[in-house]
Amino acid sequence: MRTSKFSFSILRGNSQYCYLTEWCMCSLLGVVLIFFWLPASPAQTTESGNIVGTVVDRKLEKPLVSHPVTLTIHKAEDTETEQALTDEAGNYRFEGLPLDPTVHYTISTVYEDTDYSEADVVLSTWAPNITIDFNIGAFTDDKSQVQIKAHTFIVGPPPEDHASDGAVTIVEAVGVENRSDLPFQIEHGAQTVGLYLTLPKGVEGFLSPAFTMDLASNEIFLKTPLPPGESLLDYTYIFHVERDGLNLSRHLDFDTTQFMFFIPDGIGLVPNAKFFGAPRREQIHNNIYLIYQSAPDQVFEAGTTIDLALNVNMGGTGGAVPRQSSNLGQLILIAVAAALAGGFFVAALFKLRAANNNTESDIDDTSTPPDAGWLRKLNPDDLEHARVARLEFITHLDDKYERQQISERVYKRLRREQTERLTTLLEEEKRGNNA
């Protein structure tokens, strides 16, 4: 299971760009100069960092002494492992690790036949020292400690091989916070789960890296405990537009503070519930989306049924889904970004304008680095625009992390993703200059 902590600052529209003040632009200039002086392989550095932490038995409230902790190093297709033993205070330490965004780490330990792990840890010059603590053996089942902070829906075209029968792809990203100091797990029915959510009837082709689905009850289950803090979970499925629209309404199992819909322009679907208000328009990966967002001060209580029906707009296309250029991976990325930040700075992540008079669709080429396919379609001015947007977003991330407005886990994840994409972009610029 991959989970990510995240921040939920709610900022709206293109006013995001105004959030970077004059001092931030000075910092940006410094970052730009650093990138200009990077060596030929800008993703790597000779500096090193550390991963440290403490292993505590929460049942006995005492540290585990001489307990093994494993570090798994993932680099390209290769993996290596190192092991450390905790000291008398339960502390472990891995030192001298390279600050390389192409390398990620997994920290794990086993206690009483239960696996505990933290995956996708990335060290960089911005976060060279990471602390990962393990609280072993104790859980909470207090539902009041769990809240859905952001629930995002992306409506997209069905798979290419699916029949044209009104089917659409639905991507949902759920940002959930466990406010307890202990992992959350609860008895639900005949099983113990870390989280359970109810989906509408009629779901097909359910896919998720974290959840399993019970078709009889239309419920999905997180099999592993929900860790303390903020986590991000996503899943996809196929649903059908009926004559009256697309009804995604469901019973709420936990309190929820934010709902968002990303609906392609021209699809002819509009949320029925009045709490969404008027949409805003954003261009994301050559597609125009209408973004509906519930009021940030409204809480939807557990135990109620939420109206998530989308009505057919008779002035639109009657629910027909246009064949867009966005693939499933892009839809998931949009949903994840929106849930990570409640809609904040989605444009900075995705709204990188295409080359003038270029009508080609994005190419899904898994053999090329991130961004490489669409970067080749941009002219030099657009590459410069994309580079500045990446740097602005990285600078904004650094600012939020320094102010402790964003969790360490989501900071590491977004920093790694943006650094990798910036590296690819700089290489494309260098390739163009040498042509």
Describe this entry's structure for a reader.
This protein is α+β, with helices and mostly antiparallel strands and 435 residues long. The protein has two domains: 304 residues, no CATH class; 77 residues, Immunoglobulin-like, CATH 2.60.40. Helix content is 20%, strand content 34%. It has a seven-stranded mixed sheet with strand order 15-18-11-10-21-24-23, with helices on one face. Strands 1, 2, 5, 8 and 9 form a five-stranded mixed sheet that branches. A four-stranded antiparallel sheet has the order 4-3-6-7. The N terminus is likely disordered.
**Structural domains: how many:** 2
**Spatial order of the strands in the main sheet?**
15-18-11-10-21-24-23
Please tell me what the overall shape is: globular
Summarize the amount of helix as a percent range.
10-25%
Average per-residue pLDDT, rounded, comes to: 75
How many DSSP H or I helices? 6
- Poorly predicted runs: 1-45, 316-320, 343-375
Q: Into which percentage range does the β-strand content fall?
A: 25-35%
Structural class: alpha+beta
Number of strands: 26
Largest sheet, in brief, is: 7 strands, mixed
Rg calculated over all Cα atoms = 23 Å
Alpha-carbon distance between the two ends: 43 Å
